[in-house]
């Protein structure tokens, strides 16, 4: 059972940049369920997409795996033989806890959890790659470079699943969706102080793109098909097929 997220519940004199440290690891499941609308639906559907797109004797990658929710969903969905899941995260605290979660359940599909920078990973023989709220933490240049590397490492017909927070070019729509997200957090028990302080901590490290920018990248890289398959307020998920 997850501890309750109270990281930003008391006034903080100097708010630093948000990091995925041990404090966040302890409350991460509670934090993400109460902060990201539709998160459980996305995780469930990642398993469904893995079942559909995993090819025999191929690799499936969870880049920015955190505590392994998408990894475990993929592992439950896979019906093909000879598959391997590779989860990668640059937070030592996340990786340590993720390994415990993965090892708690027996499975025929092997899982390797690696502490590394996803930008330095070799992607090869991949049928499924997941970036679940990960790309938005990289610089814009690194985003394109990583997506190019993923495309090169995907088998023909392979799928990239990209979940992100979005910004919208229409200012009225963008502000409404931000307000609805804050309403969602209030409904889940976060105070005005928590919402404000978390926003200050994360705004320098998470710089979301518009759906249009994601589409432009996919087209430029060469993906044959791409679309938004889920959206709730200003959070959503897209697929891109090679």
TrEMBL record:
Residues 62-158 form the Methyltransferase domain. The keyword S-adenosyl-L-methionine applies. It comes from the Bacteria. GO terms for biological process: tRNA wobble uridine modification. It catalyses: prephenate + S-adenosyl-L-methionine = carboxy-S-adenosyl-L-methionine + 3-phenylpyruvate + H2O. S-adenosyl-L-methionine binds at residues 39, 64-66, 89-90, 117-118, 132, 199. CDD domains: AdoMet_MTases. It is an enzyme of class 2 (transferase). Its EC number is 2.1.3.-. InterPro entries: CmoA (IPR005271), Methyltransf_25 (IPR041698), SAM-dependent_MTases_sf (IPR029063). GO terms for molecular function: carboxyl- or carbamoyltransferase activity; S-adenosyl-L-methionine binding. Transmembrane segments: none annotated. Keywords: S-adenosyl-L-methionine, Transferase. Catalyzes the conversion of S-adenosyl-L-methionine (SAM) to carboxy-S-adenosyl-L-methionine (Cx-SAM). Belongs to the class I-like SAM-binding methyltransferase superfamily. Cx-SAM synthase family. HAMAP family: Cx_SAM_synthase (MF_01589). NCBIfam families: carboxy-S-adenosyl-L-methionine synthase CmoA, PRK15451.1. Homodimer. This is Carboxy-S-adenosyl-L-methionine synthase. It comes from Vibrio ostreae. The gene is cmoA.
């Amino acid at each position: 059972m997850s501890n309750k997220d109270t990281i930003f519940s008391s006034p903080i004199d100097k708010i630093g940049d948000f990091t995925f440290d041990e404090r966040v690891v302890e409350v991460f499941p509670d934090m993400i369920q109460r902060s990201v609308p539709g998160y459980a639906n996305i995780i469930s559907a990642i398993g469904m997409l893995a079942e559909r797109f995993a090819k025999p004797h191929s690799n499936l990658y969870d880049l920015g795996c955190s505590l392994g929710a998408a990894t475990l969903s993929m592992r439950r969905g896979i019906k093909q033989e000879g598959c391997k899941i590779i989860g990668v995260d640059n937070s030592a605290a996340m990786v340590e806890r993720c390994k415990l979660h993965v090892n708690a359940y027996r499975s025929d599909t092997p899982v390797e959890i690696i502490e590394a920078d996803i930008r330095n990973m070799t992607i090869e023989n991949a049928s499924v790659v997941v970036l679940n709220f990960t790309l938005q933490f990289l610089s814009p240049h690194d985003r394109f470079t990583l997506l190019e590397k993923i495309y090169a490492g995907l088998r023909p017909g392979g799928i990239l699943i990209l979940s992100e927070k979005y910004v919208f070019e229409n200012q009225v729509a963008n502000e409404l969706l931000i307000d609805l997200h804050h309403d969602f957090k209030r409904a889940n028990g976060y105070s005005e102080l928590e919402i404000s302080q978390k926003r200050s901590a994360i705004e320098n490290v998470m710089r979301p793109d518009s759906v249009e920018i994601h589409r432009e990248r996919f087209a430029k890289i060469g993906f044959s098909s791409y679309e938004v398959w889920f959206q709730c307020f200003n959070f959503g998920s897209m697929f891109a097929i090679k």
